[in-house]
Amino acid sequence: MTNPEPSSDAVATPKGGSAHADEDIARIVEAIVYLYTESRRVTKELARAFGLTGPQVTVLKMLEGIGGLSLSDLSARMSARNSTVTGIADRMERDGLVERKRDEDDRRIVRIRLTDEGRALASEIPVESMEVFGAALRALDHEERRSLRRILRRLSDQVAELVETKETELRQRQAEQGDGA
Amino acid sequence: MTNPEPSSDAVATPKGGSAHADEDIARIVEAIVYLYTESRRVTKELARAFGLTGPQVTVLKMLEGIGGLSLSDLSARMSARNSTVTGIADRMERDGLVERKRDEDDRRIVRIRLTDEGRALASEIPVESMEVFGAALRALDHEERRSLRRILRRLSDQVAELVETKETELRQRQAEQGDGA
DNA sequence: ACGGGATATTTCGCATGCGAAACTTCTCCC
DNA sequence: GGGAGAAGTTTCGCATGCGAAATATCCCGT
After folding, report:
1. Residue B131 domain-assigned?
2. C1' (C3) to CA (B94) span, angstroms
3. B50-100: pLDDT as tens digits
4. How many inter-chain contacts (A to B, CB under 8 Å) are there?
């Protein structure tokens, strides 16, 4: 995999980025993709023993921990979009695991909570989402975990900021469009 | 994640299962999911400006860097399954970006490489996959990146080992089935 | 040479996952 | 209080993403 010269016309070395740093970055990105993908796959496979999919386990465990959640809150906690979670909730409702209920105060909101059957199943399931990854993390010593958590926290903040900026720009461009035209 | 067990306090469990560690682990998993998901989303959006999807950019950039790859090699490098990449290659072939060619020596293998059009498009595209995440990583200092890379490397090895073990068990169980039954 | 197992790819059905548009309900401002 | 716009959810069409089964090819022992 040691590629000395990756296509020079790409974003090879932007600013102060030494080839050194780029190499580190490439490996880190690779590792993140690998860890996420592989963990997801294993979770999915474990879930299958209970007749569930990966995301369904995530929802079950999330609703077990907290009482009920609006569809939007659930989406946000899962890092997924509403339109995605609607489908997951549909299938879980079909299977009798969760139920939808309109909020009385604000009838736009849909509250989702476990049925008795869903709660029973949730208590049987030993795995959390991303179980393998969690197991690997337990093998790290205290200091490394601390360090990792701190660095990832900074990265998350950074990414959130970049996304925020991008969305703001987008919104402004849309406002200009709707205004000037 | 909110352990149902009543306050077992921060009693240091021998196996490293203190509430302290669990909290760290939960946050780390959260962060990984967030970073992966959000980066993927941004890449997809950037790709759209070129009439491409996220994975298509990944394939384009991968084939640009290396000459041609078998479908299996491509899958492995993308952390995806063959059946997934078959579909991606289908659509890229339909759009004239890549072409398939049977290997002459081993006719089971399908070599995939860029067409002229694909190569031209690849050279126009400034983004790598997971671009935002890469940008965030550049904001870290050298030491942190080094540390992160080292820890993720260990985690990847750990996960790979767990997966390997699991697959071996599965294979043995299958062998017993086919044999002893 | 030939037959069974191994390897590479594709096909099929299903579950995400997403953005854009449609709907419903709420809110705020005149 | 009424209408414009915001907020929450769903619908729709499309692209992953996967496992299991089907196909095609190779390889190895006899």
Report:
1. yes
2. 39
3. 999 999 999 999 999 998 899 999 999 999 999 999 999 999 999 999 999
4. 179
